[in-house]
Amino acid sequence: MTDPQQGNAPAGHLLTTPGLLCDFIAQNRSRAFGAGLDPFAYERVTGTLRDLLEWPAAFRAEGQRLVAAAEAYAGDGAGVSAGETFRAAARWFHYAVLLPHPDRALAARAAAEADAAMGRALALLDPGHIRVEEESYAGWLRTADGGDGRDGGDGGRSPSSLVIVVPGLDSSKEEFHDVTEALLRRGTAVFTMDGPGQGVRAATTVFEADYQRVLSRVVDALEERLGPVPVGVLGLSLGGYFAATGAAHEPRVRAAATVSGPYRLTGWDDTVPFVRATLAQRAGSPDAAREFVRRVDLRGTAARIACPLLVVDGGEDVIPGVVNGAPLAAEAPRGAYLLVPHGDHLLGNARADWLPRTADWLTARLR
Fold it and tell me: Given this model, what pLDDT does residue 171 score?
C-alpha cells in the first residue's frame, strides 16, 4: 500500500514515524546553522513539512529559488552576489539528501544540483579552483592565493601545504564551506571532497572502510598538480574515522584532525533505525552496512597513527552505538584532545570554540 503524498514509499515508512520530524528538525538545527543555512529560512522551510518524506522536495525548492536569484544577479553583472547565492543554493541542495529517503533518484538529482551550484559559485568567487575527480571521489582544490597551485606564467604558485577535508555519513563537500575558508585564510591549499558513497558519488559508489586506499589515490592526484607538499587531513563525523584510518596507513599525511568522529561503532543492533537505514543506502545493502559497522573500529589502528592528531569532541554529542574520540586521542602516540563541553554533534552550536583552534593547530603542523 502507498500513500499518494509519499510517492513510492509505503504507508508507515520509517520517515513517517510519529515525532521523528520534530526530532530531526531539532537535531539538525545547529548543524544547518553551522554549515551556513539561513536560520530563518530553515525554520520557514521545515515549518511546512508534514513528515520527513517531504524534506528533499522542500529543500530542493529552496535551492532552486536561490539558483534563480543567483542567475538574476549574474545577469545584472553582480558577480560576487551571484557567487555567494550559488554557494547558498549548494548548501540547500546538499541538505535535501541528509536522510534515507526511498527515492534514490531524487537524492542523486539533489546531490548533482549541489555539486553544480558549488561549481558555479567557485567560477565566480575563486576562478583559480580546480576540479579533481576519479570514479570513486570528486572535489574542489583551492589555494590561498586563488591561483591554480602551479608554478608558471598563469600567476599561480605552489602552496606550502595542503589539507584534505573529508565528510561523513550523510555529509558532503558542500557542507563545510566555513571549514574550507578557515583553512584557506591560514595559507594552506584545501581539497574538499566527496569520497565513495558521499555527495555526488553516492549514486554510483559505496562506502570504503579501508579509506587509506581512497586517500592515497587523492594524494597521488593532488601531488601531480601541486608537487610534493606537506599533507594534512581533517575528517568530520564518520569522516573522522576515514581520516584516522588514512593517517594510520598513508605516510604522506603529516598531521590529522577529527571532529565528532567515532572511535568505534559498538554494533549493528546498537545503532538507531534511522542510522541503520542511512548506512544501508550508503554501503549498498543491509549486509554490506553490517560489515561496514563492524569495520569502523580504531582499536589497534590508533597506535599506528605516527603523525600529530587532534581529536575534537562535543560534550553533548550522544549518538547510540557510537564511542566518541577520547580513546583515539589517548591511544595515538601524538594525540591531543579538545573537548567542548556544550558542543553537539559537529559542534555547529560552538563553532567559535573549536574551528579557529583546529585550523591553527593543523596548519601550524604543516609548516
Answer: 95
